[in-house]
Amino acid sequence: MRPAPARACPPRTGRLASRISVRWPAAPAVAVVSLLVLTAAVAPVVALGAPLELVPAYFGPEGSPDPWHTMCEAAPAGSTVILNPDNGPVKRDAKVYAEPIRFCEERGQRVIGYVFTRYGKRSLGAVERAIAHYYTWYPAVEGIFLDEMAEVPTAKVEAYYRQLGVYVHSKGGYLVGNPGDTAPTPWQLADVDTVVTFEGSAASYASYSPAPWVLAEQPPQVADIIYGASESSQMEADCERAAGENAGFIYVTNLPEHPDPYAALPGYWTAETARC
What we know:
Largest sheet: 8 strands, parallel, barrel
Shape: globular
């Protein structure tokens, strides 16, 4: 789901999807160690059974207390924050976000920029320009969140996201894809690092059953986003369930789908970061 314009109407995550699928031949121990060192710069470290936060921060850093400071003071190191000034980068807001981004990254969180793709129908040039603007205007960003990612693979769709994956990874960026629903196969993980396999209400999550391929991936490649979990007890149950269903990243909020579940932090944010 694409959020509404940032300040006037904060945007929302539409669908997250990302992962890199690589099959490595047997290699000497030294080569394996080298590979781990190289990939550590891109892939977040996630403890098995302990999901980290993937926060759709579709709200500005204004306020007292500053919601970005509140967010990153509580979020565990290794979590990811999605920056979304207005359904994409806005040059005039770069200075406003500079200090909050630095604050979060000093606490071990990764900040990535929101870009929508209209399920592969937005022009590649427009998407690449938005990505380039993040890296130019918000030079501290460490990756990109591709919202409205296509679910069904076709030759055209796969080529589209392959090019975006190469583009972001060539900048050393971490890439999350969000289709909002589970794709029929793990094809998205050939291009992104993490994929959002569920984005929806707590009521829908109660009957959600992950596809077999989701359970076969590494937890850092899987994320769940749940809104409308009104009680903290429901939030805790959803967190526990997500961990059991292989999600390495999670976000649960009490805010309902309408008008915008990502317009502010959940009311139980501190409890969520402590118990999830």
